[in-house]
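[Discussion] Sanity-checking designs against the backbone

I'm trying to build intuition for which residues belong where. Below is a structure token string of 517 positions. I'd appreciate it if someone posts a full sequence so I can compare it with mine line by line.
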């Protein structure tokens, strides 16, 4: 549609201009003067999101500048309209204005219009060729917080939207059209430049096929319909209504895909890291075996180890010769052996715990990767279902931390930082509620809102696992977790937020992994 507007304008160029008028705060109209315009004397740039539009109008328009950008546009973008360009069939158009001489000379400039839905923008660029150059001023500044791919700042350099590789419908060959024979007509727009939802719906109507129907041997029928659309991109009234619905669905699906992609890809990355933990734990078994072998030697030959020695040379059990074993001089041979046994046992426990989860992790990874693969092809209904599923799979959150529910139905709140820890413990917790924390490790405060009731053993273990899993002990073996009533927890005078003392605690040992369910 943009190409059609520019195609109608091209034969009349260059055109004398009579300045700018501004019907509202997001509309600028360049007044044109010259033959061949059929009474349409205004080029209207309406840049209000989400439906910007460029068109020629014969209506009498008026209006003074209403913003700093419009005032600068009226003052600087002057002179004859020398040329108009479109970036491929993308929604980016540039107007070349020749400048003018007078009391204050105005240099040639370019006015660039991004007719891009919610990101619509008009920019004043310095004189130059094509679509790149220095930005004099933009109607809407775009920082890295709004667009991580490119920024638009006054005084900065403009770069057009990222390049793409699509077929040009104006020059589409029969061979190229035949290559699309297996693609449903409603999805030809994904391969063809310049087709949005409305024109795609019009192509479906003109082809006589269903949107989800692949043309197969009838591809010449679709090519003929496409050629008529290039000549006359007018959308019929019936298609306009249906296309508007389709456009809304398309926009919603695009927004959903964007919102779902990040958590899905994070999930894939997380599971891959957890599987890598299994691999590292398996490698740790060799270290554990070496520790056990040295510990066995120390126990067998403890009478030969000199007290306080930094090392000992002992004969290997397999007859391979002497083995030099490093020692901690302040420990006896038996104590050095016990330390090695403990290290080996921890490595073995970590591997056993992680290996037990490995089949489940592999299954979860396959499911997560499958979701990412199907994201681009999923229908709006499938995307809605996926969004609901992901929401249901997320742990509930409260204003003051992550929220869980124990097997017995008690609410559990887990602090995510020192401030939330302090809030849970000193503001939300009641005196008879229960408080959990991993013993000897920095980590989250876990509050179980029991309403004064005693906790059953499954509830205690559930909350203790949450405390261990949200502490520096995560990934270790059996972790001690202390628990007591809130009334026995206090903050020492002058201590930072989250630091507490407590008494009357009991201790349970749990795996430092988040509980299931």
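Best answer:
Here's mine. Compare freely.
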């Amino acid at each position: 549609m943009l190409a059609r507007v520019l195609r109608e304008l091209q034969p009349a160029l260059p055109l004398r201009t009579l300045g700018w008028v501004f019907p509202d705060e997001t509309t600028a109209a360049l007044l044109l003067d010259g033959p061949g315009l059929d009474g349409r004397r205004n080029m209207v740039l309406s840049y209000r999101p989400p439906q910007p539009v460029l068109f020629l109008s014969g209506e009498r328009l008026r209006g003074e500048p209403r913003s700093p950008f419009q005032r600068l546009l009226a003052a600087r973008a002057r002179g004859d309209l020398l040329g108009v360009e479109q970036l491929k069939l993308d929604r980016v158009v540039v107007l070349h204005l020749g400048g003018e001489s007078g009391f204050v000379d105005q240099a040639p400039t370019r006015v660039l219009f991004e007719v891009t839905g919610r990101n619509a923008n008009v920019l004043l660029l310095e004189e130059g060729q094509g679509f790149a150059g220095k930005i004099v001023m933009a109607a809407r500044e775009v920082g890295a917080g709004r667009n991580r791919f490119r920024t638009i700042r006054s005084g900065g350099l403009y770069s057009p939207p990222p390049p793409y590789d699509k077929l040009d419908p104006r020059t589409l060959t029969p061979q190229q059209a035949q290559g699309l024979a297996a693609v449903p007509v409603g999805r030809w727009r994904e391969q063809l430049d310049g087709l949005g939802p409305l024109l795609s719906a019009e192509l479906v109507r003109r082809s006589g096929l269903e949107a989800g129907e692949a043309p197969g041997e009838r591809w010449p029928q679709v090519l003929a319909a496409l050629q008529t659309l290039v000549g006359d991109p007018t959308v019929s009234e019936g298609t306009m209504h249906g296309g508007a619905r389709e456009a809304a669905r398309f926009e919603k699906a695009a927004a959903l895909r964007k919102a779902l992609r990040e958590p899905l890809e994070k999930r894939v990355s997380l599971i891959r890291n957890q599987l890598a933990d299994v691999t590292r734990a398996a490698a740790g078994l060799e270290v554990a075996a070496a520790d056990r072998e040295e510990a066995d030697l120390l126990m067998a030959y403890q009478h030969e180890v000199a007290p306080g020695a930094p090392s000992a040379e002992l004969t290997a059990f397999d007859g391979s010769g002497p083995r030099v074993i490093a020692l901690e001089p302040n420990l006896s041979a038996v104590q050095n052996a016990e330390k090695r046994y403990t290290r080996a046992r921890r490595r073995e426990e970590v591997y056993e715990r992680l290996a037990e989860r490995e089949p489940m992790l592999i299954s979860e990874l396959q499911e997560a990767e499958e979701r990412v693969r199907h994201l681009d092809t999923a229908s709006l209904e499938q995307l809605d279902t996926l969004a609901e599923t992901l929401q249901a799979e997320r742990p509930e959150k409260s204003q003051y931390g992550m929220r869980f529910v124990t097997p017995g139905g008690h609410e559990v709140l887990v602090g995510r930082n020192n401030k939330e820890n302090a809030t849970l413990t000193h503001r939300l917790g009641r005196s008879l509620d229960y408080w959990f924390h991993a013993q000897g490790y920095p980590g989250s405060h876990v509050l179980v809102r029991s309403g004064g009731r005693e906790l059953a053993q499954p509830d205690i273990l559930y909350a203790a696992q949450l405390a261990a899993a949200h502490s520096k002990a995560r990934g270790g073996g059996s972790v001690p977790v202390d628990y007591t009533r809130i009334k026995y927890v206090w903050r020492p005078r002058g201590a930072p937020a989250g630091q507490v003392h407590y008494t009357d605690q009991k201790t349970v040992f749990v795996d430092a992994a988040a509980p299931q369910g």
